[in-house]
């Protein structure tokens, strides 16, 4: 049925999907319109289109854990009697489960890859403007406050990695590959300007994974090695030119870790360590049910009042670790749900990352790099409590899984006929 879709509809749906990542980073209210259109399209396809349902079934190992996470936190909020406004961001998972079905529509791959890549470039330019024109030392984008610099850095690096994936495709035209390289470079430099240590550290191994997988697929190991060396050298050179801010922040990690104590918990790293100690206290007190969604801050402030926790963490509502967040607020079952959410997606995308068909392998590598970035960044930061990074993760992983499911069905259908 969808193969006869009007060409204009194919272009329109492709453009709507392509602009979604950039829209997450913008403060304008009109950004809800593309999401609403894709939601309605996804719902219609889920009801009326058997091919879309077949693609969803293919993607169940990614969609299923996301649906479980939505249900888990719904029950958690109800059991703890928490204000339902705390469920606002988490409830968006349900919307993205439906929006993901729109990826089963016939799409123009070139629109998607250029749209995602250009998004990284545009956000990188925003960072350049903030740093060199507005004089902002640590940039944070236009949809965040200063506290959003970490999430914004991760957001750009995820999109930059998707551009890197496309830049490594030798079958694309030189002009498009150059465009992806420029957009990736802008996104990476913009992320450096956020001075966010966690995302920058996570980026290096994920960048290496992406290059090595593509080198393995194509057999062009020399090109891959050159790309890897040049990419890391360029990033290091860019960091070194930033008046030492980034290197200074990294150098402070060891010093703060070695001098941390329950009495001396001032400084970004020491405060993290104190929050993590508080989180283990909460997990010991509530190992099964947790303290409830978004309730870590109240728990920490109660312990501060008792003199058990240093007052330097009083302003924080989250423990700066997504794993500890889910463990503290949802107990050990919550932690298990998060591990399943990440683990199932990693296995799914890794399974198809080495597929001989570029049409399948490229979105799989993009999905894999996204999950890897979030999995690593979640060790030292909360990656889901703000709408912007929360939306990007579920939009990309759920949508790309359905997209791959549709392509797999299309590839296997002729074989079944034969």
Automatic annotation (TrEMBL):
GO terms for molecular function: glycosyltransferase activity; ligase activity. Its EC number is 2.4.1.-. It is an enzyme of class 2 (transferase). InterPro entries: O-antigen_ligase-rel_domated, WaaL-like. Coiled coil: none annotated. Its main location: membrane. It is a multi-pass membrane protein. The chain crosses the membrane at residues 7-26, 32-47, 59-79, 91-107, 114-133, 145-165, 177-192, 198-213, 225-244, 326-350, 362-385, 391-408. Residues 184-339 form the O-antigen ligase-related domain. It is found in: Membrane. Keywords: Glycosyltransferase, Ligase, Membrane, Transferase, Transmembrane, Transmembrane helix. PANTHER family: LIPOPOLYSACCHARIDE BIOSYNTHESIS PROTEIN PA4999-RELATED (PTHR37422:SF13), TEICHURONIC ACID BIOSYNTHESIS PROTEIN TUAE (PTHR37422). This is O-antigen ligase. It comes from Luteibacter jiangsuensis.
